[in-house]
Structure formats: C-alpha cells, structure tokens
C-alpha cells in the first residue's frame, strides 16, 4: 500500500492542473460506470484516467535534444553598468518540443532589469530555435556564471510538465567601478623632470626629415634610403622607428588590516575602484601601466583594459601586515608612481616615501580609514601625508564622501606637496 502511494505521488508530481483534473474526472467516470453498469462510461473514464498517467510516465523520459548558445554583450562590464544577455535555444531532435517556459539561472548579485529572466515560449519545431534577450546590471565586482538554462517542457495536451536544464553557461567578468578622471597630473609631460618618460618617436620616413644611418652587414635592401645615399655618396639605410612609451606603476594596498567596512561602501572596495580608475586613465593617456600590491607585482601582466582589470575583479583582502615586498617592487619601477593606500603607520609611510627615486613623479591617494565611517578627522592619514609630501610625493587624502575625480584633481594643485622639506634625520625619526 505504501509503495502504491509513493508511486502515485511520483506520477502526480509532474502533472499540471489539467492533468490532475483528467485523473479525477476519469476516476469518477469509472466508478460511476461500474455503479450503474454502463460499460461505455467505464471505457471513457478509463481512457481519460490513463491518458495523464501515460504522459507522466513518458514525458520525463523523452530525450528532447536542446542546445543553448548564450552571448553576453559586452562580456566584461564595470560594476553598475549593464550588459545584454541573448540566449539562443535550438531543437536538434526530430521531435516537436512543447516548451512552456525558459529561465536563465543567474546569481543574486546580478540584478535583472525588467521583470525577470523567465520567458513564455511556444513549441519548438524540429531544427527550429528561439532567442531570449534580457539585460542585467551587476552591483558588485567578480566573475559570475550566467546559466544554466532551465526549460519547462509539456506534452501535447498540456497534462504534464517537467523541467530540464541545458548546462551551457557563460562567464561574466564584472570589474570594479570605473570613474572618469580629469586629465591633470597624469598627463604625459605635465610634471617637470619627466624627461624621457613622455612619449616620443624617432623615425625615418624617407623624406628630407629622415634620420638615416650607414649601411651595415645584415641590413635589408628594402631599408636603403636612396636619396641620402646619393647625397652622402655611400649606402645609407633608414633608421628603425623607436618609440619610448611612458610608464607608470600603480601600487594598491590590499591588506585587510589597512581597511575598514564591508560591502561596496567599504574602504577596500573604494580603493580597488580607485586603482582601476587610475590604471584605466593612465592607459588612455598612453602610459604602460602595471599593478603592484603589498605582495609585489601581479603575476598577470597586461594593460588595465584587459588583464589587470580581470585581476582587480577577483582580488580579495590580504592577511599580510607588511608592505615591504610591494615597496621593493615599487622602488625598482620606472616612470610615474601612483600609490592607493589604506591605513599607514608612520614607519609604513616613511618606507613608501623612499620608493621615489630622484625627481621621479610620485602621487598618493591616502584613504582616511580611521575616520571612514565616522566622517571625522584622520590624524594618521594627515601624518602619513606629511611624510610622503616631505619626500616629494603629491598627496590627496580621500574620505568616504570625497569624489574620486576631485581627489585626483587635487593632486595637480601646488598644495598637494608640502613646501617645508623634512630632513633625513626627521624621516628616520618617523620610522
């Protein structure tokens, strides 16, 4: 008896309201036909009763061959921006597929613009396809899987429905929020003493302004500059084009002890957004930028528009307490230095200050972590700013209410660098 009830419960699971109505009506017709001895009514009732039972047994076991191809446009977005998801559902079987609905499974952190990612569909003919399109707006950075696609399939009479999953998934990369920064201190050539850091090109185009050189063994004849050859009376070749590209190093403090708060409003997430914005801005200005953390230079090298933004999309707080490996990597870097730092002790600030060599341009965005939630004054950030400024850094203190663009623009002000120099003995004392 228990096994019969269990089997009936398993069969009634995929039944729709119409299927259960057929069961009830068929069973009642059979009972009435047997009571009044009406064989025709018994046969009709048996047919009505058996039809949903057969559908419940066959539909879940039917192998509908469905394929799903999903396209994300774009596949990489910044937090708070939108991307369009287009899923193409295609039937690759010879059977007509009765699809009631389709729904993409997405993480809770991906907000769907509109009602939902669920769509009502009609039957899909053999070899036919349907396209589903919707928009999502991620609220937090990270890498998220969009999918699989859940499809509700029904029989021809709508008596039974079952859910199947098409396991194809797509990965959406959500980078930190990117803030457009004004072209001020980071523009090539804007600071005195940059010298060869700015972009320049030495080329020979084959005209009067060419810069030819004497032919050497191994040079290609295609490089021969005939006009200069006739002028100097010896074989001359065009000088290869040389390009010296500006470089910059972005130092990001990811220590958990150097930040406060949780979620998108924490100082850690704000620092990551600042580093991503600065790196993207530098790339747009023609810099070759690299990313350095307190653990040293990141293993994945590339432009901030691709590889390093992917690194920042999944970076997590570090349990390290020391900045020494990162400062060592920063000290060996050429070009401009940009530090995005959290809470710094006087010793950390003094060591960071020594990463600047000679007249090397250096800037720092110091986050007022101690007063991040209270909104008051931050004595340790002001002290660190004085130490860095004394070493020639341009410093801007960032609070929770400070727009990043305003803090970046402040680095171009004369007040960003203290005029009163600190002596070497005073720096040693700060350590």
Task: Provide a compact summary of the structure.
The chain has eleven helices and 21 strands. The chain is α/β, with parallel strands linked by helices and 431 residues long.
Count of the separate structural domains:
4
Task: Kindly report the CATH topology of the largest domain.
Answer: Rossmann fold
Straight-line N-to-C gap: 83 Å
Total strands: the figure is: 21
Main β-sheet description: 6 strands, mixed
Q: Largest sheet, order of strands side by side?
A: 18-17-16-19-20-21
> Could you tell me the strand content as a percent range?
15-25%
**Could you tell me the radius of gyration in angstroms?**
34 Å
- Spans of at least 5 consecutive residues with low confidence: 185-210, 418-431
Write the CATH architecture name of the largest domain. Answer: 3-Layer(aba) Sandwich
Which range best describes the helical content: under 10%, 10-25%, 25-40%, 40-55%, 55-70% or over 70%? 25-40%
């Amino acid at each position: 008896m228990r096994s019969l009830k269990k089997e009936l419960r398993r069969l009634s699971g995929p039944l729709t309201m119409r299927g259960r109505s057929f069961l009830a009506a068929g069973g009642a017709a059979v009972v009435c036909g047997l009571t009044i001895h009406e064989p025709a009514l018994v046969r009709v009732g048996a047919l009505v009763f058996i039809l949903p039972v057969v559908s419940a047994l066959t539909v879940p076991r039917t192998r509908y061959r469905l394929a799903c191809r999903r396209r994300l446009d774009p596949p990489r977005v910044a937090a708070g921006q939108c991307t369009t998801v287009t899923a193409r559902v295609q039937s690759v079987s010879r059977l007509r597929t009765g699809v009631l609905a389709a729904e993409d499974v997405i993480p809770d952190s991906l907000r769907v613009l509109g009602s939902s990612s669920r769509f009502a569909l009609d039957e899909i003919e053999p070899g036919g396809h349907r396209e589903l399109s919707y928009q999502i707006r991620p609220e937090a950075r990270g890498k998220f899987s969009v999918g699989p696609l859940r499809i509700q399939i029904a029989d021809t009479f709508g008596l039974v429905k079952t859910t199947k999953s098409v396991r194809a998934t797509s990965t959406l990369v959500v980078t930190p929020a990117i803030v457009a920064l004004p072209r001020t201190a980071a523009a090539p050539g804007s600071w005195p003493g940059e010298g060869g850091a700015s972009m320049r090109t030495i080329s020979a185009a084959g005209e009067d302004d060419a810069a030819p050189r004497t032919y050497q063994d191994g040079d290609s004849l295609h490089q021969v500059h005939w006009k200069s050859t006739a002028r100097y009376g010896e074989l001359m070749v065009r000088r290869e084009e040389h390009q010296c590209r500006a470089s910059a190093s972005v130092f990001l403090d990811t220590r958990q002890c150097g930040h406060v708060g949780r979620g998108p409003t924490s100082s850690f997430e704000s620092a990551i957004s600042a580093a991503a914005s600065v790196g993207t801005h530098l790339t747009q200005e023609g810099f070759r930028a690299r990313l350095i953390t307190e653990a040293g230079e990141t293993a994945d090298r590339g432009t901030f528009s691709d590889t390093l933004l992917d690194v920042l999309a999944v970076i997590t707080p570090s349990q390290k307490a020391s900045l020494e490996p990162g400062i060592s990597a920063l000290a060996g870097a050429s070009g401009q230095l940009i530090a995005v730092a959290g809470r710094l002790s006087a010793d950390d600030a003094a060591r960071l200050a020594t990463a600047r060599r000679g007249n090397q341009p250096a800037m720092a965005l110091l986050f007022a972590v101690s007063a991040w939630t209270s909104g008051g004054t931050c004595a340790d950030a002001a002290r660190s700013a004085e130490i860095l400024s004394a070493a020639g850094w341009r410093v801007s203190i960032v609070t929770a209410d400070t727009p990043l663009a305003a803090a970046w623009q402040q680095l171009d002000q004369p007040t960003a660098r203290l005029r009163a120099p600190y002596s070497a003995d005073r720096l040693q004392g700060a350590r």
